[in-house]
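Checked the freezer inventory, then went back to the computational side. Two predictions to log before the end of the day. The first one is the construct we discussed on Monday; recording sequence and tokens without edits.
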Amino acid sequence: MPSSNIEIVQNIYDAFLRGDIPTVVEGLSPDATWALVGREQDVPFAGIRNGKTGATDFFRILAETVDVGSFVPREYLAAEDKVFVWGDWQWTVRRNGVGGKAEWLHVFVMKNGKVTSWRSHTDTAQIAATLHAPASGTDRRAAGR
């Protein structure tokens, strides 16, 4: 059993990296909010979602939209009931093969060992640009990206 909020968050990231979304969602309180800060009309997986069902929808839409090439949490900081994590990720858009990369800041709010709120802050304009770009000439997935 994790002994700190940072360990709980690290376990959630480990589950995400394994593709174990049910374990990620199990780490949420039933009334949790889950949000990539941004406009859903620009980035389909942006916006606020409610509860475990909302978080599950976020991961489904993310997987339908992009292939995550790398996802690296780099630094953790805990303060009171919050855990702040800085990191970066790379993705390839499924529809057009265009890739991108960005830094992010995740803010988790914790209560009784469960996530009650998650906010991801990143450059959604950069994500949107890759989503709406014309198809690339190279299939990066085929190139062993």
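The second is the one RB wanted added to the comparison set:
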Amino acid sequence: MTCEERSCGELLCPACRDRLEQLRLRDQTGNVRSAYRYQDEVRELVHAFKFDSVDDAAQIFVSAMAEEAREMDLPPDTVVTWVTMPERRRRARGMDHGRMLAEQLAAELGLPSRQLLVRRSRALPQHTLNAVQRRTNLTGVFGAAGCVEHPVLIVDDVYTTGATMQVCSDVLRNAGAPQVYGLTATMVRR
């Protein structure tokens, strides 16, 4: 990454990997969790993944997310899905990073992954909005791809106010999901 230390072919040098480990979120409870605090090296890694197409970053996040998911005691019939990104943004970045995280996490956990959320309309970029504006901004944006008859784990990259996770959870519950869980690579701590 940016420290310019020797990394022996790895994405992160040992010092950055240690600092990353210090940003792990531990001892969480509840149905929505995150693997890392969104700051310092973690923030750099998210930006490299999302904006510079550094695919290797996905595996670093997925390893930590898988540990967290195993502690969540997900039902064995859980399906992993992701927060679908706008098509224009996906084309510009060359990938849907949420989908990549979800598919790799599902493979790591031995669970299926499917696109259960679709975008019905555009929304403003969330990073410029406060909590109330974020929730309002997402009204009507997401829909279910069909009926959902199994528990769902929604995967996303950053949990900021929880608006995206809440809206997507509501959509999936309204489509029939008996249980909805959420797991993000990072969480902004206020």
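For RB: Residues 157 and 185 are 5 Å apart (CA to CA). The mean pLDDT is 86. Let me know if you want it refolded.
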